[in-house]
Amino acid sequence: LSARMSDSHVAAELGELVSAFNSLLDRVEESMKRQQQFVADASHELKTPLTIIDGYVRLLQRWGKHTSEVREEALAAIQQECGRLSRLIQDLLILAKVQRAPFAIQNIEIQSLVPVLQEVKQAWGSVFPHHIELTVQWREPLLVAIDRERIRQLLDILLDNAKKYTEKGSVSVYAYTERDVVCIDVEDTGIGIPQEELPHVFDRFYRVDKARGRSNGGSGLGLAIAQSIVQLHRGHISIKRTVTGGTKVHVTLPSAQLNEQE
Ligand code: ADP
User: Fold this and answer.
1) Is 218 in the pocket of ligand 1 (CB under 6 A)?
2) Which DSSP helix (H) or strand (E) runs through 90?
3) Where is the HAMP domain (predicted)?
């Protein structure tokens, strides 16, 4: 009897092991599929500007000698596509870097968020056109354990988006502490994101409006990078439509204030 009991015990354990192994295999397969999809998407994104450049080079070869308008148009287009390629490659490199956890964060230090916010206020103040009002405000204390460069990068991405997709009105950044987290809200009165698109905007290369995204110089990688930076800091990022139809991004980072007291 005891031999049979131990047999069934072994069988149950084996069954558990097999199912754990299967679920691990599923996860590996899923991650490989995502990786393959990423490589396919990245290749496609890199290929598009190259195809356009190739087209204009052919045009130049055929007509460039004779017509100065063709020359000018072709050179301007080639320059624009080169700029797009270079931004895309830069974003791909940043994404690769921030997704190489846990080594991606190098200079984590407990500090106040205020100097970063002051820097952002200064830098973006002159970038926004006059008809869009930019406000950067905060309520101290704002103590966080952060890689300052990365958090600056995060805010730059969010402000760049707010600027790209806001034609009039205002953009506001507000930072405050709520219980054990430091919150940063970036809100705009821009064109907004349709409700059904919201779950996808953190996906790599996802653009709500492909044509507009491209002409704005967007790579579709900004929010994916932003999300990776926040996750590296064990924080959380979410995006929603505001009542006026604009966009609000809500970031939370663990507060260092409470952690120290604990
Ligand atoms: P992109 O480089 O194209 O801006 P992102 O990953 O930063 O890529 O954003 C993904 C998409 O989400 C954008 O193409 C845009 O359609 C939408 N989006 C992001 N931020 C905003 C915003 N503040 N207002 C409206 N749409 C936005």
Assistant:
1) yes
2) helix 68-98
3) 1-33
